[in-house]
UniProtKB/TrEMBL annotation:
Keyword Ubl conjugation in annotation: no
EC number of this enzyme: 6.3.4.15
GO molecular function, one term: biotin--[biotin carboxyl-carrier protein] ligase activity
GO CC, one annotated term: cytoplasm
Name assigned to this protein: Biotin--[acetyl-CoA-carboxylase] ligase
Pfam entry (one): BPL_LplA_LipB
Keyword Ligase attributed: yes
UniProt keyword list: Ligase
Domain annotation BPL/LPL catalytic: ranges: 16-189
Length: 254
């Protein structure tokens, strides 16, 4: 069972801890329809049996070893065009945590919101928003963070223990993530989107370095130059032209 000792104003004050659950994002979405949830409610499970990933993928996490949880937010102060700022703040919160826990490692945010440590993925973030014409009514922020798992990790994945050789108490890591998310969420709520965008750009993987990509027209060398306010990724190609990509339109090769 999970407990949160976080020193927060609202995130994690309502905590639903489940021994097993299909998907914490799905569970929270179902709960939001039928029950009154407080902003900041967290659903967490020891054993997620049907975790949802981006692009319709699944998310596997060894039971009892990692964090799999979702946070319920009501960011009505954001317009639909500002949705990507939620990806930014959650990425920044995890970036800060990973920098603190793995100080010697290279930590980056891989667009749009994957956290990479030493070139391997350590966190998956799946943010599902309900929007109307004017604002974001509800946001379910799902996070899978590899903490103590060292077996059965994909070649391309890692965990905090694999990097630092230290086994962590999951409740402590959860409290730290939640405090970091609240910190950036409050920054966003008090209209600091410019600073948030700047901090996000500084931590972007492959920013300002030549790398190899593939889009619908084929493979090419390019340089990430940053993101638009709405999250569109800008890559300069060899001819000097700026190409713009929505989520799923570009693949990072190598
Ligand atoms: C990705 O594909 O990188 C995103 C993975 C997101 C996984 C988390 S685990 C907790 C939450 N519940 C889910 O079903 N998915 C997210």
């Amino acid at each position: 069972m999970h407990k949160i000792f976080a020193n927060t104003l609202f995130i994690g004050k309502q905590l639903i801890s489940l021994p097993s659950c299909h998907s914490t994002n799905e569970f929270l979405a179902e709960l939001a329809v039928k029950d009154t949830l407080f902003e900041g409610a967290v659903v967490i499970t020891e054993n997620q049996t049907k975790g949802k990933g981006q692009r319709g993928n699944s998310w596997y996490s060894e039971p009892g070893k990692n964090l799999t949880f979702s946070v319920y937010l009501r960011p009505k102060f954001l317009k639909p065009s500002q949705q990507f700022d939620l990806n930014r703040i959650v990425s920044l919160a995890l970036y800060d945590l990973l920098k603190k826990m793995c100080p010697m490692a290279k930590v980056y945010i891989k667009w749009p919101n994957d956290l990479y440590v030493n070139k391997k993925k350590i966190t998956g973030i799946l943010i599902e928003n309900n929007i109307n014409q004017h604002s974001i009514i509800q946001s379910i922020v799902g996070i899978g963070l590899n903490v103590n798992q060292t077996d059965k990790l994909l070649e391309t994945a890692t965990s905090i223990k694999e990097i630092s050789n230290v086994e962590y108490e999951l409740n402590k890591v959860l409290s730290d993530v939640i405090m970091a998310i609240e910190h950036y969420y409050l920054m966003l709520r008090s209209n600091d989107a410019r600073l948030i965008r700047q901090l996000y750009e500084e931590k972007l993987y492959k920013k300002d370095v030549v790398a190899y990509y593939e889009d619908k027209n084929g493979k090419f060398n390019g340089v990430i130059r940053g993101t638009e306010a709405d999250g569109v990724l800008k890559i300069e190609d060899e001819s000097g032209a700026l190409r713009r990509y929505q989520f799923k339109e570009i693949h990072f090769l190598l």
